[in-house]
Sequence to fold (136 residues):
Amino acid sequence: MNPNMLCSKCKKRMAVVFVTRMEGDKPINEGLCIKCAKEMNIKPVTDLLDNGKMETTFYRAKEVQPVVEKMITLGKKGDLAAYRKALAFITKEDVAHKLFKEIAPKYADRNGGYTRVTRTGERRGDAAEMAVIELV
Fold:
């Protein structure tokens, strides 16, 4: 992390983390501040918890996977503090309610491994490697 770099998204001078994303065959390193790097995962996590399955690029699926697992672990705790932590990240209140009332009780006896990433091939156009991430 270099404190003198600019974030490539919000253009503020602060500590920057390098996020690697794939564009075709080559990895692209983007210098993002920590806040912007977290914001990139909010929408896919909410959509995955809402629908149970999502098709996206393989590298984005691997970024989203640990965050979804943490949200399900919060749902398994089931207390008010865990609910508020989940609402800080999940943008829709009905999805947070679904997480705590339907999704988390389904995994009550399971210790981790709530999601599965399956590669589906290459996307037509830019040849990005696609994958399906789903709740097990």
Q: What stands out?
A: The helical segments are 34-51, 58-77, 80-89, 93-106. The radius of gyration is 16 Å.
